[in-house]
What does this fold into?
Amino acid sequence: MALRLPRIGTSQIVALAVILLANWVVSPQFFDIRLQDGRLFGSLIDVLNRGAPVALLSIGMVLVIAMRGIDLSVGAVMAICGAIAASLADSHALPVVLAAALGAGLACGLWNGLLVAVLGIQPIVATLILMVAGRGIAQLITEGRIVTFTSPDLAFLGGGSVLGLPTPVVLTLGMMALTLAIVRGSALGLMIEATGGNPRASALAGIGTRLITVAVYMWSGLCAALAGIVASADILGADANNAGLWLELDAILAVVIGGTSLFGGRFSIILAVVGALIIQAMNTGILLSGLPPETNLVVKAVVVLAVLLAQSPRIGGHLAGLGVLFSRKKP
Amino acid sequence: MNFRALLLASAVSGTLFSVGAHAADMTIGFSQIGSESGWRAAETTVSKAEAKKRDITFKIADAQQKQENQIKAIRSFVAQGVDAIFLAPVVATGWDSVLKEAKEAKIPVVLLDRDIDPAGKDLYLTAVTSDSVHEGKVAGEWLVKTVAGKPCNVVELQGTVGASVATNRKKGFEDGIAGASNVKIVRSQTGDFTRAKGKEVMESFIKAEGGGKDICAVYAHNDDMMVGAIQAMKEAGLKPGTEVLTVSIDAVPDIFKAMAAGEANATVELTPNMAGPAFDAVIAFKEKGTVPPKWIQTESKLYTQADNPMSVYEAKKDLGY
Amino acid sequence: MLATSPPAAGAAPDLLALIGFSKSFAGFTALDRVDFTLKVGEIHALLGENGAGKSTLIKAMTGVVARDAGTMRLDGIEIAPRSAEEAVRAGIATVYQEVNLAPNLSVAQNLFLGRQPTRFGLVREGEMRRRARALLAEFGLSIDIAAPLESYSVAIQHIIAIARAVDQSARVLILDEPTASLDAQEVEVLFAVMRQLKARGIGIVFVTHFLDQVYAICDRITVLRNGRLAGSAPVADLPRLDLVRLMLGRELSAATGRRPPHEARAPSTAVAAFRGLGKTGYVVPFDLTLRAGHVVGLAGLLGSGRTETVRLVFGAERADCGAAQVAGQKASIGSPREAMALGFGYCPEERKTEGIVAELTVRENIVLALQARRGALAPLSRREQDAIAAKFIRLLDIRPPDPERPIGLLSGGNQQKALLARWLATAPQLLILDEPTRGIDVGAHAEIIKLIRDLCAEGMALLVVSSELDELVTYADEVIVLRERAHVARLTGAQVEVPAILAAIAEVPSSASPPVRAA
It folds into this structure.
């Protein structure tokens, strides 16, 4: 096992900066920001706003992955919760709508958590069940059509702004702050890292690993629910077929770019969110560049490869001049 | 003996098919793909209504996007001895053997919405489909006519990369504007046929084209992406429908709402009524022995704000879109 | 036959001779110039404690690992297999404790897997079945050879694996702990097969933890210790006591065998008492009382039930019978969390897989158990964590004294000290240590033993598993000896001496009843 000093996230920040600069090169007005109807307006704001759903997913996903798990169901949970929110929006008050949608997300997470922690099913299999079934559930809720709503309260969560910032950005920052406060403010973070790093040792040290496992899957479900609400609020409707489609993969990628190992252990919530921004900055850059759409996926693959290579202990270590640290033999 | 010859022979002799049967005694089975989109749901609803109009007993089998289910459904229709089978094929190939079984049972098959691999052409009576190149062309011609010679920069929201509908609608639109040098496509990106991506791509188009001031018109390969694009324009302080012209394809109910509100200009209908022409072809074939052409093209009707969009919306909103 | 000694008069000729086998892994010497000789028709026990080098020797002679030095002769011809397949072709077959055949294939298919009789490229099913039946008949086994392997008991599976190995013209058969999961009757069936093979002149290397079995069937014993040859002798020349002494490396002498005089301590209060605690197939029910300021030692050979005993006490394994009393109150211990709530602490033997979290820092590893006991919602502040880490780094002299270093980068001894610190930080009433001095350097040994004495003096109750009997007798007030998963002797006061412990470990069970194992 490669043992490293605590990460400081240099490579992620550098990668984000490089991609933002590249965007500026292909699109000179990239950093232009103006105020439009009391709301900040510009490509940089788009990156934050469009990156919000994946950033929200990655906040939950990073905890699951730190516990040596994975949650493939988040995209489908987004669709379910978005569908619930859109279906209720015009007939119920916002608190009811939010409670129903977030409650559904927690319930989905509880299901995943019980399958993993109590029944001992491998996480990738356990969450695959909901990934497949969840979209079907969402389609049942919307009866296969795009359910639209007009409620300005719910629409505000997607298209509104707080102090000039789009509401999804504010919600993501809020969720990140809340998660950081809970995880790092309590000893949960340490317990998650210990359990991910060595589950048997952690159980023998008295950590309630099952309970924590269920809790992180529920938190992942909650984050997915919020992402689903934001996605529905954004397009003033719930599109069960497409909402959150494949976003679980973007979220996993964001977590990995953020430096958390798929084998669990050390994690960083902030860097996972930075990872989500890296992905979105890249997407937005491709849209701005005017390149033909056939090249989108190729460009994305090359950039992701470059970012991950820069982080690899061998290459990144040399790049950062830290080669000594990584080549040092264990005493 | 090929199928066509068989059909002609049967039409003359009147012995093989029950020529002269009335529509009212007819039973027709429909193997539908599933309900993957609003349009598909509307097609199912409209098909039922059209069958009822003609007093036809209509049996629908939902294949849930699986060819094996469709093959099973066709076999079961054959076993039941229906008068005709409608098939909306989920894929283009692999139909030969089951369609041969239908042919041997002397049950005509009509393809709806999609065609199958050319190798099977003699295995079905006719195909009722829309021409997606033509749809794009109608959209392009409307735009050329509307801008009337003024220069116009168009941004295009493509469907999913590689989907044949996207390729065709792109080609048709380019054909439609080919004669007008004043109309130019300045940006083209994929919005994956979804609202969310349509909105995101439009946001970036607006930023890339001077805050949207340089955009004269938006062309979207489907209405869903256009609904997203309209939101993006409104959020950027633009006025779609007046400052920026919009034209898209499908004619789903929500675009009529936008047209009624003056935020969208035109849509080209992909009619959900594929079954109507198919029923008529089957009835004519059975009653009079008229062999229909191999391809019945549905109408690609253009709707604009002048076509009382609210009433169209009311008519369409319960079709299942 | 230059290097081997001439065969003794009347003895069978040498079948397999290993000379000077050595193997190191990353600076650690697993085998150091080991010689080993197997005769025709001999059943030869290969014995040793954990880490003695048995597995490495087997792997080196079957080509699974490349040896650094040494030569091997089979029937006087030098061979050097580079893989298990080559070893089989040369005539050396191995059957491991975990039978590595395909459980879902039929018995016949398993017997001929990879060497099915074929004609024109097609498997001749009839021929294969006929031969399978004939082969198993040789071992007195008449079973349905078309049934999947997994439908038979582990013992039958072992015999099938042996039949397969022998049929591949094996001259030498290595059985690596074949009896670990068999019951007494199954062991007898296996022994019958082994005797039959012996009569055919096949040489058998038999690895086991059960000394009874060694004396029941083996002709010769070779003992490894710390990678070296500790001794090799015919069974008749090596009585149990001497064998145990060879395995544990004790030279009996008055000087080292006797512990320093213990001042008789007044019986203190019982911290915890267990009555009839046990689990079927795991450890036979036992009574155990742990007192403040007293050390109870657990001694026995590997697999005798020492670790199993402490895991039951700590709730790492759930007991299926028995009762516990902690501080005079009836208690139920179903998990480590419950044990911790009662003031227990447990340093497991497997430091890497069950102890440290390699990636986390020394500080985080030290505070882990205390934090777990406080619960996630009562976090230790960073300042408290730093203070605890600094205190124990100083107290236990953990090196390097850097609390922010990932613990995986520390040496074994320092990792062990950090794990002790993890539990000391919880101020336990009862501390359970499983092989606290295994795999650490000599200096750390002395420090940890001193620490055990100090903790005891401070009034902590300790339960210590150790193979280091010399050390154990210097600090234990009471030693419980285990054999065959049962507590067989309890030595107290002046009885706590190395010779007495060794005698108890080696003693032949007085009754003829079979040892208790998995049903």
Observations:
- Confidence is low (pLDDT under 50) at residues 1-6, 320-331 of chain A.
- Residues 53-268 of chain A form one domain.
- The beta strands of chain A are 34-36, 39-41, 146-148, 161-162, 165-166, 237-239.
